[in-house]
Specification:
By secondary structure, the chain is of the alpha+beta class. Among the domains are: about 15-270, Rossmann fold (3-Layer(aba) Sandwich), CATH 3.40.50; about 345-530, Sandwich (Jelly Rolls). It is about 15% helix and about 35% strand. The chain has twelve helices and 33 strands. The chain has a ten-stranded mixed sheet with strand order 1-2-4-3-5-6-9-10-11-12, sandwiched between helices. Strands 25, 26, 27, 28, 29, 30, 31, 32 and 33 form a nine-stranded antiparallel sheet that branches. Strands 13, 14, 17, 20, 23 and 24 form a six-stranded antiparallel sheet that branches. It is globular, with a radius of gyration of 25 Å. The termini are far apart.
Length: about 675
């Protein structure tokens, strides 16, 4: 491994093992694709990515940009499909199931025994792979030397796509469950499995289950969510951790918590991007993330004295101020650094809401239900339709606290918080808080948000109904952010009792009284230090990817909002970006499409409905398969109700025939949500 202070240029020729079986003790076989440095003179360390998104087609376009680069730098890059996904046998029972984690320990032991392995393994992963990277590290496998965790979390209840602030994430709960239902039903590849592929597919279809019922059965933080939440015991992680996040990704707060609580060598990076790897950043600028990972692996597995641990522990991108919509593709700004977190250069600034135009009295908040359409997607992947728009219209229907024009630029880094004294006329209510930057033309740019189900005001394990008419002091933590407010602009706090479709409405419309004399906004203010920033090592641009066999035809996303003035129904339709992947090496093709509808009739919280449709087609030559799912979630005053439909087809065109169909219907009592 290199001992240089900058990444070694890619230099090793690469040999790709397209299909490798990893046998497990119970007879299950996991499918892997492995990139090896072809000219290695002996065993080398390995880098593992372990996810359920199909190495042959699902993540193939991304894998060639990452794992091929690791092999060129001298590592064995091992990309494994979890049990029940891709060509791997078995069934995927849930996210981060105990079986998934025990399988990972067997994978690490298998890697250690291969003749190309020197026994050392690093783990990298984004989202699912970032989650289980932390979880696997907490199990302390002897082969593991370090991890890189990207867009992940330490707390599966409070900081994932199911619940936030004790509120149910309407925009994510069913859509994500619908996606996994379709993903889990896809067949293995006949070119890999041979004649048994169809029997195995039918078995997979018979045993596939929707995940939403389990997630809805646990509406408070209980043992189900504590499993896999490394915040339960940070000290269980004994290997170095590089935590990476993006300002448009909802998981970004975990980066700060990991830096604060881990007791091992740790580094952090927070960039302008959404839920993506940084070398594929949307919005940009993208950076040489592969090279940064190589430096990390070189240091912890190659013994390289390359200076990576002499550099500041936390690097963060502070975007320059820009009007609403001007930075959706690229976010100009600069990298800043802190030696640790909490950071000595960040101080809490407490601002009474009464000084932000709120006065010192009582404000009565009767929020329309259909506030929030301008917020874009909760889980953003960077495509422009999913990014947020002008907040001015939603601000106009919220209780706002707007400060005077700033006399100088104001930079923040960390998690703001809003405290309020609130009284409700109903036993269940929610607060949604948006921090915005108001420009001289009146446009309002979303900075960050936070939610609180007021029955969770004292924690998420034991929610308690509100006593109508009683005043409560509550704190609403907002998602961490790095942001610069421009001189001449104004800071605004917008408070509402709903934020659709991000959070599911309370069962009754509420009237909230806000005591404006007792509210506060706390901002994590960072004073720029130009001299320190001038000495930071610059990140280079993403590495060029050598020619490969993967072609990707992208289908752009779309987001449309309609409102029926006669019925009062608002409908938001989103089609996330997807596309068609073709592997020219063997002709395998995968096409996917998603559609979500979010329905709500103004004035009727029980009208809320989420509908998700998924299509997954996989083919090669005369072989063709298709998965179709339809899911719908509604609620009455006492229960959540979900219907899932799954259909599987074989053949194409006039020869296509349905080979499997199933419908699941269930209801789950509302638990103060």
């Amino acid at each position: 491994m290199s001992t240089a202070t900058t990444p070694t240029p890619a230099q090793h020729p690469v040999r790709v093992l397209r299909h490798v079986w990893i046998p497990l003790e119970d007879g299950t076989r996991l499918a892997a694709r492995i990139w090896l440095p072809a000219d290695a003179e002996g065993p080398v360390p390995a880098v593992l990515e372990y996810i359920p998104y199909r190495k042959n087609d699902g993540t193939a376009p991304r894998d060639v940009t990452l794992h091929g680069q690791f092999a060129r730098a001298g590592y064995a890059a091992v990309r494994v499909d979890c049990r029940g996904s891709g060509d791997s046998s078995g069934i995927m029972l849930d996210e981060y199931h105990a079986t998934e984690l025990s399988d990972a320990l067997e994978v690490l032991a298998w890697i250690e025994q291969q003749d190309w392995s020197d026994g050392q393994v690093g783990i990298i992963g984004k989202s699912w792979g970032g989650f289980n990277g932390l979880q696997i590290a907490a199990l302390q496998p002897p082969q593991l030397r370090c991890i890189v965790t990207v867009c992940s979390t330490d707390d599966r209840y409070a900081d994932d796509v199911h619940y936030a602030g004790g509120s149910l994430l309407a925009s994510e709960m069913l859509p994500w469950a619908a996606t996994m239902l379709a993903y889990n039903a896809r067949p293995s590849d006949p070119a890999v499995l041979g004649e048994s592929w169809r029997d195995e597919w039918l078995d997979r279809l018979e045993r596939t289950v929707p995940y939403a019922e389990e997630w809805l059965a646990h509406q408070r933080r209980d043992a189900y969510w504590r499993h896999g939440s490394v915040c339960e015991d940070y000290s269980a992680i004994k290997v170095p951790v590089y935590a990476v996040g993006g300002w448009l990704d909802p998981y970004r707060g975990a980066v700060f918590r990991l830096m604060e609580n881990l007791r091992v060598p740790a580094k952090a990076m927070l960039g302008p991007w959404a839920h993506t790897y940084p070398h594929q950043a949307e919005p940009g600028p993208a950076m040489d993330f592969q090279g940064e990972c190589v430096r990390w692996f070189d240091h912890w597995m190659g013994g390289a004295d390359n200076g990576i641990m002499d550099e500041p522990a936390l690097r963060a991108w502070i975007p320059d101020p820009s009007p609403v919509g001007a930075d959706r593709e690229e976010r100009p700004g600069r990298w800043v650094a802190e030696p640790s977190w909490p950071a000595p250069g960040v101080e809490a600034s407490v601002i009474p809401l009464s000084t932000l135009g709120g006065g010192r009295g009582t404000a009565v908040l009767r929020s329309p239900l259909a506030i929030g359409a301008s917020g874009g997607d909760f889980l953003k992947f960077g495509d422009i339709p999913g990014q947020y728009g002008d907040q001015a219209a939603d601000d106009g229907r919220s209780q706002t606290f707007t400060g005077p024009a700033l006399t100088e630029r104001l930079e923040i880094l960390g998690a703001p918080e809003v405290t309020l004294r609130v009284t409700s006329d109903r036993p269940q209510a929610q607060l949604a808080v948006r921090l915005c930057e108001v420009w001289p033309d009146g446009s309002s740019k979303l900075v960050t948000t936070g939610f609180l189900n007021l029955t969770h005001r004292d924690g998420h394990t034991d929610p308690r109904p509100l006593e109508p008419g009683r005043a409560y002091e509550v704190a609403v933590p907002l998602f961490a952010i790095g942001h610069a407010f421009a001189a001449g602009n104004r800071v605004r706090v917008s408070v509402s009792a709903s934020l659709w479709p991000w959070i599911w409405p309370s069962p009754e419309q509420v009237a909230l009284e806000l005591d404006t004399a007792h509210g506060e906004l706390t901002l994590p203010v960072r004073v720029p230090r130009p001299a320190d920033e001038a000495g930071l090592r610059p990140y280079g641009p993403p590495l060029d990817v050598p020619p490969h066999s993967i072609e990707l035809t992208a289908i752009p996303g779309d987001r449309r909002v309609s409102y029926d003035y006669e019925t009062g129904e608002q409908v938001i339709v989103t089609t996330p970006a997807d596309g068609t992947m073709t592997d020219r090496a063997d002709g395998l093709t995968r096409t996917g499409s998603d559609l979500n509808r979010f329905r709500l009739v103004e004035g009727d919280p029980l009208s809320a409905a989420v509908e998700s449709e998924r299509e997954e087609s996989i083919s090669r030559g005369d072989w063709a398969t298709r998965i179709s799912t339809r899911s719908r979630m509604t609620a009455d005053a006492t229960d959540f109700c979900v219907v899932n439909q799954l259909s599987a087809f074989e053949g194409s065109g006039d020869d296509e025939r349905e080979i499997f169909s199933r419908t699941w219907s269930f209801s789950v009592p509302r638990d103060q949500v």
